Amino acid sequence: MKRIVFIVIAAAMVLASCSAPRQVAYFQDVSGKDTLIANVGLRPLKVQPGERLMIVVHSSVPELAATFNLPVIGYRLGTNNTNQNNNFNSTYATMSYIVSPEGTIDFPVLGTIKVEGMTRNEVAEHIKHRLVSENHCTDAVVNVELSNAYVNVMGEVNRPGRYELTQDNVTILDVLSQASDLNVLGLRQNVMVSRKTAQGTQVYTLDMTNMQQLLSSPAYMMQQGDMVYVEPNKVRKRQTTVSGNNLLNTGFWISVASLITSIISVIVR
Prior knowledge:
The chain is built from seven helices and twelve strands. By secondary structure, it is an alpha+beta fold. Mean pLDDT is 80; it is low at 14-21 and 79-92.
């Protein structure tokens, strides 16, 4: 009888260990075989109200370009500056533009510009076109950067936190890589992405074990302000039971004992 009990327990442990990889592995629908997947449509970041735009105009005439850049003058104590009467040293940086609730910025010389819904490249091309066509700066080169674009990553990842979007077309895989990947207790089949829209908050559910489903989701490409949440799997949820250890849960052992007893009864009969 003891031998039968030992065999049953060993078999249960083997089955449990075999099931673990299916809960952890990504892209199970293409694993072990060559698969052709259609190209994913790129979704560059678009300017939204409340964001900060770093806009810098370059020209062969620096004094002319300076007209269109917002300077920030900082002073550092303890150094000499021959251009000033005090003991300060001035350094220059460029100030960012805050997009108004109406989706506009107030640009030097050009005035109010509607930028909401435009990509960084579109904003740069629009400003350059106006500067050149209106003869303000005929050799203008315009660079535009988003200075406060980020996503939040929470839940069962190794490094939860806020991560900056420094370029366009950043995917959820890029963001999870920055967060050092999901840990083994994260539920791969239920990764949630919360996104603010004009209609409200849209929540997407992503299955990281299914590449086809993942690539077709609008949430595959990250947008500024997205919140990524990795739900804990059943093992993590059970760890919140008695003393934080499911092995100390009386109900757990009663269920195991009942299962083993039933199997032994069937075998003996």
